[in-house]
Amino acid sequence: MTRTWFITGTSSGFGRHLTEQLLARGDRVAATARRPEALDDLAARHGDRLWRARLDVTDTSALREVVDRAFAGLGRIDVVVSNAGYGLFGAAEELTDEQIDAQIATNLTASIQLVRATVPHLRGQGGGRYIQIASIGGQVAFPAMSLYHATKWGIEGFWESAAAELAPFGIGVTVVEPGVSRTNFGGTGAVLGAPLPEYADGPSGQLRAVLSGELPPLPAPGDPAKIADAIIASADQIEAPFRLTLGSDAYAMATAALRDRLQALEAGRALAHSTDADDTVPATGLAGH
């Protein structure tokens, strides 16, 4: 079935792969990017099935205008993909106020504003699908990536709530959690804070050495083309899978983190119950069985 997609951040990475594959299979794509000219080759090949707009997702008024224009021009958009984002690396103390604000504005606030801009259209047309490109970094965390993790954990929490709000309108939600993939995320797509000597021998300094090529790169098992294919396939499912964990590393890291978290929670069960008021009937759940 031919669909129409709206995707942010399409000039590179997952956004580019998604756009290429969707056009190749005959779908229409409303592709937004800071540099839409990066898609000139696809426009020449696919003609009016590729609708393009220049967009900085942190400009909320421009975001709303582009969304409205896309729905008006294309008539119906079946799938919205929030993909634009980047990684900010360095210890929290090494980051500037401007870098912190920009990371939150791009990775978290813009994703939320895209929902607010598109949902009235999706609701009005009787439903649709929303796909959030998140990260396994929304389930696990590593030193020297604190602000990146803050945005990814934040968008996970947002969707835990918002997905239930949208379900009655026929809007399905999928949060995609890729592991380390062979994109430009850790290369030209990365932003680093200014190094402080106090952190040089710690995780921040080591990560800088990896990103600069002084140390071997981290293993990157994820194939972005295969990840894009899995994302597209998820939209073909009748029921939207809420989470899509992609990559063997992502699966292993999430499994270990969740097991450790559950073990720590169970260890504190008696303490948790001890702080109830005396007349409380304890809530039951998986831990109580």
Automatic annotation (TrEMBL):
It comes from the Bacteria. CDD domains: 17beta-HSD-like_SDR_c. GO terms for molecular function: oxidoreductase activity. Pfam families: adh_short. Keywords: Oxidoreductase. Belongs to the short-chain dehydrogenases/reductases (SDR) family. This is Short-chain dehydrogenase/reductase. The lineage of its organism: Bacteria, Bacillati, Actinomycetota, Actinomycetes, Kitasatosporales.
